[in-house]
Amino acid sequence: MIFAMGIDVRETNMAEIEERLSKMSTSLNKIAYLESAVKGNFTYDIKRNLWARLAALYEESKMIDKAVKAILNKAGVDISKNDRIESFIKAAELYAKSGKLDEAEDIFKKISKDEGSVQRERVKLAMKNIYSLLAQEAEKKGKRTAAVKYYEKLIKMNLEDFEKAQIKEKLAEYYKSLAKFRELRALDQI
Q1: Per-residue b/e over 40-64, b at no fewer than 16 CB within 10 Å?
Q2: Which of 13, 93, 130, 172 makes a 20 to 30 Å CA pair with 102?
Q3: Above 90 in pLDDT, residue 175?
Q4: Are 172 and 153 spatial neighbours (Cβ–Cβ below 8 Å)?
């Protein structure tokens, strides 16, 4: 039996934990319960599931920093290299979505440094796809400044010539509309 922060965790397996969670009405109650449960003496498999559920609830509640921390804790108990990499990519994606591009970049660099060339390519592709998708979403919402940030990250990557040309074209358009003439001139150097 575990007792932490006022929540008594008596469950011993995922089925019991899921049943208890299903009886809770709010996300905050579920979060408080899971925060207590992850401190318990469970197997790695159960811990992974607990961290994943907790991260999802944090993300739904817009607690991005806590969601990232939970995902990184999940990565610490992931068994396979692929699962660990997926956890790190998800953490970086959440940081990027919340506009914390430097933090996202740090995570991408960390996993690229620790992995072989095949995994590095997988991480680069994920990074490119995340930044591209987020830039397009920002464009659709009319958030030009946010779109510029993502495109600036993309232009610095090792991309195909046609991809770079498309991104330069979009950046030039946005720099003109945002009156960023210095950046527009610097774009010619890339």
Answers
A1: bebeeebbbbbbbbbbbbbbeeebb
A2: 172
A3: no
A4: no
Whole-angstrom distance, CA of residue 90 vs CA of residue 70: 11
In this structure, what token pair is assigned to residue 168? 């330069």
HEC profile for 80-132? Answer: CHHHHHHHHHHHHHHHHHCCCHHHHHHHHHHHHHHCCHHHHHHHHHHHHHHHH
Block residue for tokens 């998800």: 90
Give which of 175, 178, 124 is closest to 151, Cα–Cα: 175
- Count of H helices and E strands in the chain? 10, 2
Closest CA to 74 of 63, 64, 65, 86: 86
Confidence (pTM): 0.81
Q: List pLDDT tens digits, range 110-165.
A: 888 877 778 888 888 999 999 999 999 999 999 999 999 999 999 998 888 899 98
